[in-house]
Design the sequence.
């Protein structure tokens, strides 16, 4: 027996259960969504797509504009990581690479996979899906490390002629990309994992 | 819970049906993101500008992605690629030019590399040491045919913008010390630069482009003259020594100065060709040769051979240069008699403007003016000038009283200017005379004689005998010193002492032996002798004859010769004393005199003085004896008188006037003199007893 079978619907905000068809929660005023409401999955896909779109310029445009007395360099995310790697800073390079490249792309894949899995009920492993969703939500916030680094550097290194660091266009794109991906993960309704498709 | 009964009235409407079929509004977000991203991408693509290629001979310091293209010091592009041309002869640099300026980068654009430079005029673009080199582009504001491939300039162009100056070309026979980038100076201000020094392909000279910056190129005109101020010049003239250094830069890399001497010259166009003169004087003089229209060429026929005239030598009128000699040649003409006459023909050009005519006057007007002047007495003559009068000029001068003459302007030939006698200062010829006399001096003979004399002197000096002479003199003196210092001489005081003792004893003996008595006896004897004479008077004449003969013999003695000889000897001695060798003796004499002094000391120490005193005492006693004897002298005198009386008697017997009587009288006088002498002796001894010792 499930709530779905009992034609009940739970409020995602306060947890009170209402009969199916109730539009808003009588206790907290939140809008009640039917489990089968396709809005959830659509939002996931939409945010995910927006995040992926934003991720492209984030990698093509320079992340940092570093101008020193003698030199003026611009670095993209991957270019910076490669430069750090070539400069021998393997640890930093690994962190940058993981935070800026592996995690966002991993999130894209994970969310996409979950969305697909929920869309097609025949994919097995519901418990694993739930765990994956939790991991994605947990990790999502750490993706902002890059953006924070850029923000802190830009704020600190303002030494006029000697050295100045300014955020490039990629920083904003990256931040948007991360934000969209987080929204995408948030849009997931975990209940949908357990819903069984009515034949 | 209070929500159970009334919750349905919140919203009891039916659900909106299956939402799978409806699109969520969330889809707007990725759509927007996509649109924005695409928009940004499109703008980036649109804004990236055009790619041009600039070929450099070498890409010193150019870095991909870093080296920028600048236009008026503003960044307008960036190097995207560095590669080679197909034949590897050039470096092709791909530059992405910003969109705003890209249309202006047309076929007229030029590019060059800006890098730090250290030149004699200073350091430039030092900033590029830190920032790295950059490529500078130059294009105008007109959009012409587009181009994407350019060849870079080797160095920055001097004319940055159109109308910022004028390019001209200077040509010269010799590059001198002009270097690339040397300054062009106008009245001491740098107004331009030299570029592209090259050999003139058409002739043997050199060419160089000069860029005169904008405000100053107005000063250029067709009558401007350029000259080389390279290095420094030193000129020695009647005004003194003059050192001229224009600027340090021109000292090192040369320089060119120009001046516009004649106003109203035609304005020039770009690439006008100017001659570059070697120095300022030449350049200034060249103004006359330039104004061809206002120049009249005349000639001068010189009979003598005048050497110091040359092409370019100025022609002066009232002290100012009005022209210069243009040609010197031999003029051949036939006299009316048919003989050929060769003369020196000096052609010279006279500038009408310099003679006071208007600038626009023509050659004919100048000639007419000269014709007029010649009628009033203008003549040409060769004058000497310069510090020593060594260089010559042609002077046009109004000579009063010159025979009337005219210029022959009818023929096509160069008119011959009437001339008067040259006015050449003879300083140089006078100097020549002096030199000739000096040359004629028998310096060589004198020198030969001097050399011979020196040789002889040298031989004399180097002779062994001469070399030994000083040693001989020294030896002589040594011997003398040795003699003085010898025991014999040292013993002399003793000898003298004994001698004086002897003298003392002799005088004592004299006293003892009663000399006075003996004198008296002698006088007695004389008296007796006189008596005997009286007796033997008969034999007197023979005696007298003998005496007379003896006297005559004495008088015949060659005393004069003796005196002469003596005088000569004395003179010789004097000369000898004057000789240098004698003068050099004192040193040795000093030593000798020291010895003498020592000897005298010995003499004093040896008691010689005491002995002498004793001797003098003895002498005094002797003198007293003599005085005592002299007391008896009156007796002697009386006896002598007696003798004389006897003689008188004797004479009286012979009778007065006879020869015998004269002789006897003479004899008597002698006897009287002898008596007087004895008397004076006695008085002398009385007064000065020492004379017995000293003999005086």
Sequence:
């Amino acid at each position: 027996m499930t709530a779905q079978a009992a034609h009940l619907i739970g409020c995602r905000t306060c947890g009170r259960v209402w009969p199916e068809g109730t539009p808003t929660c009588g206790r907290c005023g939140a809008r009640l969504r039917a489990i089968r409401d396709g809005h959830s999955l659509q939002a996931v896909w939409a945010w995910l797509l927006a995040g992926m779109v934003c991720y492209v310029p984030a990698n093509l445009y320079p992340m940092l504009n570093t101008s020193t007395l003698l030199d003026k360099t611009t670095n993209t995310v991957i270019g910076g990581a490669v430069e750090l790697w070539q400069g021998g800073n393997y640890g930093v390079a690994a962190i940058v690479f993981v935070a800026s490249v592996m995690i966002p792309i991993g999130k894209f894949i994970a969310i996409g996979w979950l969305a697909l899995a929920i869309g097609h009920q025949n994919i097995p492993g519901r418990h694993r899906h739930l765990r994956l969703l939790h991991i994605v939500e947990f990790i999502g916030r750490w993706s902002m490390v890059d953006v924070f680094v850029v923000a802190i550097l830009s704020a600190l290194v303002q030494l006029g002629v000697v050295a100045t660091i300014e955020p490039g266009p990629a920083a904003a794109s990256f931040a948007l990309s991360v934000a969209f991906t987080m929204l995408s993960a948030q849009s997931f309704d975990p209940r949908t994992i357990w819903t069984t498709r009515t034949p | 819970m209070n929500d159970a009964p009334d919750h349905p009235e919140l919203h009891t409407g039916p659900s909106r049906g299956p939402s799978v079929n409806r699109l969520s509004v969330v889809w707007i977000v990725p759509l927007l993101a996509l649109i924005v991203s695409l928009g940004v991408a499109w703008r980036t693509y649109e804004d990236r500008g055009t790619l041009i290629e600039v070929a450099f001979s070498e890409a010193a310091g150019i870095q991909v992605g870093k080296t920028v293209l600048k236009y008026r010091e503003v960044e307008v592009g960036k190097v995207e690629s560095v590669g080679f041309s197909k034949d590897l002869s050039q470096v092709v640099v791909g530059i992405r030019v910003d969109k705003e300026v890209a249309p202006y980068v047309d076929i007229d654009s030029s590019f060059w590399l800006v890098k730090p430079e250290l030149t004699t005029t200073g350091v430039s673009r030092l900033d590029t040491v830190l920032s790295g080199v950059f490529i500078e582009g130059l294009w105008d504001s007109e959009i012409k045919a587009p181009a994407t491939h350019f060849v870079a300039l080797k160095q920055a162009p001097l004319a940055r913008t159109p109308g910022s100056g004028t390019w001209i070309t200077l040509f010269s026979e010799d590059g001198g010390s002009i270097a690339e980038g040397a300054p062009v100076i106008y009245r001491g201000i740098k107004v331009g630069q030299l570029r592209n020094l090259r050999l003139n392909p058409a002739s043997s000279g050199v060419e160089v482009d000069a860029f005169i910056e904008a405000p100053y190129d107005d000063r250029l005109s067709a009558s401007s003259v350029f000259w080389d101020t390279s290095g420094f010049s030193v000129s020695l003239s009647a005004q003194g020594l003059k050192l001229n250094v224009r600027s340090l830069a021109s000292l090192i890399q040369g320089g060119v100065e120009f001046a516009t001497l004649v106003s109203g010259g035609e304005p020039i166009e770009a690439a006008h060709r100017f001659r570059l003169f070697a120095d300022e004087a030449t350049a200034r003089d060249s103004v006359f040769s330039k104004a061809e229209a206002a120049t009249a060429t005349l000639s001068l026929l010189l009979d003598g051979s005048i050497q110091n005239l040359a092409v370019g030598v100025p022609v002066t009128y009232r002290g100012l240069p009005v022209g210069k000699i243009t040609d010197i040649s031999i003029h051949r003409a036939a006299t009316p008699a048919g003989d050929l006459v060769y003369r020196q023909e000096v052609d010279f050009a006279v500038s009408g403007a310099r003679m006071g005519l208007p600038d626009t006057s023509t050659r004919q007007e100048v000639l007419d003016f000269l014709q007029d002047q010649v009628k009033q007495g203008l003549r040409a003559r060769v004058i000497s000038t310069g510090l020593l009068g060594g260089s010559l000029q042609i002077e046009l001068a109004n000579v009063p009283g010159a025979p009337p003459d005219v210029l022959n302007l009818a023929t096509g030939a160069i008119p011959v200017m009437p001339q008067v006698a040259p006015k050449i200062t003879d300083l140089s010829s006078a100097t020549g005379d002096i030199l000739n006399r000096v040359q004629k001096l028998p310096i060589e003979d004198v020198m030969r004689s001097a050399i011979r004399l020196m040789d002889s002197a040298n031989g004399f000096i180097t002779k062994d005998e001469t070399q030994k002479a000083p040693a001989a003199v020294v030896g002589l003196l040594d011997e003398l010193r040795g003699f003085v210092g010898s025991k014999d001489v040292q013993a002399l005081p003793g000898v003298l002492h004994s001698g004086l003792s002897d003298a003392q004893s002799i005088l004592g003996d004299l006293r003892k032996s009663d000399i006075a008595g003996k004198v008296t006896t002698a006088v007695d004897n004389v008296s007796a002798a006189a008596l005997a004479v009286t007796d033997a008077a008969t034999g007197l004449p023979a005696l007298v004859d003998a005496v007379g003969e003896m006297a005559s013999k004495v008088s015949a003695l060659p005393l004069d010769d003796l005196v002469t000889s003596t005088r000569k000897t004395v003179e010789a001695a004097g000369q000898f004393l004057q000789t240098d060798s004698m003068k050099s003796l004192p040193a040795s004499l000093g030593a000798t005199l020291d010895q003498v002094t020592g000897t005298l000391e010995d003499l004093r120490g040896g008691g010689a003085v005491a002995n002498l005193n004793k001797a003098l005492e003895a002498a005094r006693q002797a003198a007293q004896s003599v005085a005592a004897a002299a007391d008896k002298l009156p007796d002697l005198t009386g006896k002598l008188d007696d003798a004389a009386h006897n003689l008188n008697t004797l004479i009286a017997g012979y009778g007065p006037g006879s020869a015998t009587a004269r002789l006897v009288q003479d004899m008597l006088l002698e006897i009287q003199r002898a008596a007087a002498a004895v008397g004076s002796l006695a008085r002398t001894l009385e007064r000065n007893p020492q004379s017995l010792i000293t003999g005086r």
In short: The beta strands of chain A are 8-10, 17-19, 64-68, 72-75, 163-167.
